[in-house]
Specification:
It contains 11 helices and 8 strands. The chain has 306 residues and is α/β, with parallel strands linked by helices. An 8-stranded mixed beta sheet has the order 3-2-1-4-5-6-7-8, sandwiched between helices.
């Protein structure tokens, strides 16, 4: 196993649905590394699993940089405390390209590509490999968690944990209840969310859950407003920041989250609800086709230096 440090892990063998002490995050991208960071900061042992070694390397560097920023914010100019905080948190994390290295955990969170069949394949495998007590959770932002977990047997120990980007900064966590989740599992997921510093809200398995269900029409209408030439993207962003008190305008937010992610979320919610507010937006489709995905590609509604 490719370890960040040589670390002996003590995995819980208890069948109790109490404190989560060991966490595995499947997916080493921006969301996955952020989830791993907050769990490690909270004192939990974490394994990040991804099939791409380069993503794991990037995740390690990102986490270490972020931990340093957090440490400076917490301890100001106390260098010793900052270094201890970074080392202690970082030492709790290990990485691997093999899913088998991460199955012996109290909680496994999936944070991979937003494709139903890929997620289903992963959860079916995790369901077979993980110990009986392990809770399985998806970080999906738009796909039905009931559909993702349709093939698993432990439906009572499965739910949604929808984080927001960037995970270490955003305080909200949506805990999504599938149709078969047990009360014990739900309460454990809520308590775990609080343990990593999040304010938790609950939603049933409905398209877009709470936040994206409301953000979808807002984002789409902003793009339509700009597409029609009614107002510039800059003025729309300024209007929502100064007039509505939003920290970011809709175009800044779309670039930050990824235009491809926005397009996919709208598509899923339109298919599930048939509500015209989620109808595809031609300009958004065009930009995604051109590879203008926002900050991650260097250009979206605005241009960025890589």
């Amino acid at each position: 196993m490719n370890k960040i440090v040589s670390l002996t892990r003590n995995f819980s063998s208890s069948s109790s649905l109490n404190a989560i002490k060991t966490v595995t995050v499947v997916g080493g991208g921006l969301m996955g590394s952020g989830i791993a960071q907050v769990a490690a900061q909270a004192g939990q042992n974490v394994t990040i699993v991804d099939i791409k070694p380069e993503l794991l390397d990037k995740a390690k560097k990102s986490i270490q940089n972020n931990l340093t920023r957090v440490g400076k914010k917490m301890y100001k100019d106390d260098t010793a405390k900052i270094e201890n905080f970074v080392k202690d948190s970082f030492d709790r994390i290990q990485v691997s390209t093999k899913i088998e290295d991460g199955v012996n955990a109290d909680l496994i969170i999936e944070a991979i590509v937003e494709k139903l069949h890929v997620k289903q394949e992963l959860f079916n495998k995790l369901d077979q490999l993980a110990p009986e007590h392990t809770i399985l959770a998806t970080n999906t932002s738009s796909i039905s968690i009931n559909e993702i977990g349709a093939g698993i047997k432990r439906k009572d120990r499965y739910g949604g944990l929808h984080f927001f980007n960037p995970v270490p900064v955003m305080r909200l966590l949506e805990v999504i209840k599938g149709d078969h989740i047990s009360e014990a599992t739900y309460q454990t997921m809520m308590e775990w969310g609080k343990s990593v510093g999040k304010t938790c809200i609950t939603c049933k398995d409905t398209p877009g859950f709470v936040v994206n269900r409301l953000l979808g029409p807002y984002s789409a209408e902003a793009i339509r407003l700009y597409e029609r030439g009614d107002a510039s993207k800059e003025d729309i962003d300024i209007g929502m920041k100064l007039g509505a008190g939003y920290p970011m305008g809709p175009f800044e937010l779309a670039d930050y989250t990824g235009l491809d992610t926005n397009k996919f979320a709208l598509q899923v919610m339109y298919e599930k609800t048939n509500n015209p507010v989620f109808q595809p937006v031609p300009l958004l489709d065009k930009m995604v086709a051109e590879g203008k995905l926002g900050i991650k590609s260097g250009e979206g509604f605005y241009k960025y230096k890589k």
